[in-house]
Design the sequence.
């Protein structure tokens, strides 16, 4: 019997895009989170006395800024080496062979499989064969799995590959292949990477995406880590998902249907915050709050987004101190009923609201808007144009969304100020 760890998508020293927009962001702890999570992986591997560690691509986020990234890796993989633990890795689209201009010799106990052909490594002492192939360039559209050899009889066969499989939402389609392509090889375990969310694709054979080891932005929510695989008698006995993350991202959708007042809204937000804090197991949390549902309070909430956001931030501080950072507050609550009745009123106020809401969202349809966007493009810092939620000023759909938001903010303020109450 032996165990191994399968991890992927470490994205060491991934740059923090967009975070500088938030003055309250715990940028330093997010910056270091991937390194801390990798240290956790090494600690766990030593503790479990695993036979080896598999890294299925995107160990690095891209070309190193300096050599400290490589030195960090040497240090951590070196710790594994001191305990006789080997590391087998393939390169993915982020750290493909042709992307890395700075390199260091890999540590003696680490093998990076070839990007030119499928390579098979035999660990005779364990009766294991590891078949894998690295990405030679960032964009691989070939089916790499097709060239993997058939399983070696009498051995525990592992396929190590960075792939989007038959397509996964939010992930570029690299090295595409089907579950049947993998199944046809007769391996016992496929150690995949690229998809940042934990997924057991199949149990016969085992085909697993461990997910990334540390969430880096609001699209990477929930626990992140690796899997610990136990092999007994040439077959997988157990696959355990192990969290390694040091900071957790949470996207909370708070239903505010029928709330009585702002205090009521905050009470509902509080319940979500407390629930997330309780499952985070002492880790700091970066949280986005999105209000949803239908409420008579909608306009009041929409009219003063800054105040709402500050109330929510203050609540986060009350509940978990510096361990809860509110990344953003989104108000998607609606108030159809009230608005509908005013819009059908034959008053000047009703007409005004109708006119605002009828304004088309395209920049070409609103006089002067294109000029405003041009000005904006010159003024915003470049990092605001990149990252997980960039200001996509050239994206018509994005501009449309902003115009819609502005319309509802305006209508909310008008309803609050005059007509409705
Ligand atoms: Mn990838």
Sequence:
């Amino acid at each position: 019997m032996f165990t191994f760890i399968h991890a992927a998508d470490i994205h060491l020293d991934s740059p923090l895009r967009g975070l500088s927009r938030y003055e309250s962001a715990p940028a330093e702890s997010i910056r270091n989170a991937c390194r801390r999570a990798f240290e956790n992986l090494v600690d766990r591997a030593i503790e479990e006395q695993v036979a080896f560690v598999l890294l299925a691509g995107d160990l690095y986020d891209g070309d190193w800024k300096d050599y400290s990234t490589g030195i960090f890796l040497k240090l951590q993989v070196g710790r594994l080496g001191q305990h006789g633990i080997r590391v087998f890795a393939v390169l993915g689209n982020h750290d493909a062979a042709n992307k890395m201009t700075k390199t260091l010799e890999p540590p003696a106990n680490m093998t990076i499989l070839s990007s030119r052909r499928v390579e098979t490594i035999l660990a005779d002492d364990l009766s294991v064969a590891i078949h894998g192939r690295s990405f030679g360039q960032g964009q691989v559209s070939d089916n790499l799995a097709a060239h993997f050899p058939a399983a070696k009889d009498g051995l525990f066969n592992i396929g190590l590959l960075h792939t989007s499989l038959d397509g996964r939402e939010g992930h570029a389609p690299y090295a595409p292949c089907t579950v049947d392509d993998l199944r046809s090889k007769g391996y016992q375990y496929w150690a995949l990477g690229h998809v940042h969310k934990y997924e057991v694709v199949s149990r016969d054979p085992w085909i697993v995406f461990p997910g990334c080891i540390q969430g880096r932005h609001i699209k990477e929510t929930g626990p992140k880590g690796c899997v610990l695989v136990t092999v007994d008698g040439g077959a997988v006995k157990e696959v355990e998902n192990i969290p390694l993350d040091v900071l957790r991202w949470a996207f909370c959708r708070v239903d505010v249907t029928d709330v009585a007042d702002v205090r009521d809204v905050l009470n509902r937000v509080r319940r979500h915050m407390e629930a997330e804090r309780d499952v985070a197991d002492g880790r700091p949390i970066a949280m986005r709050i999105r209000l949803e549902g239908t409420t008579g309070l909608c306009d009041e909430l929409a009219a003063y987004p800054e105040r709402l956001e500050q109330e929510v931030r203050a609540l986060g501080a009350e509940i978990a101190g510096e361990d809860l950072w509110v990344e953003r507050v989104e108000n998607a609550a609606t108030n159809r009923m009230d608005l509908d009745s005013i819009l059908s009123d034959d008053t000047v106020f009703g007409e005004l609201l109708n006119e605002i809401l009828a304004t088309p969202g395209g920049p070409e349809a609103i006089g002067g808007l294109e000029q405003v966007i041009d000005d904006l493009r010159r003024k915003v810092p470049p990092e605001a144009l990149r990252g997980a939620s960039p200001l996509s000023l050239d994206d018509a759909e994005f501009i449309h969304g902003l115009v819609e938001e502005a319309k509802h903010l305006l209508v909310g303020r008008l309803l609050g100020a005059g007509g409705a109450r």
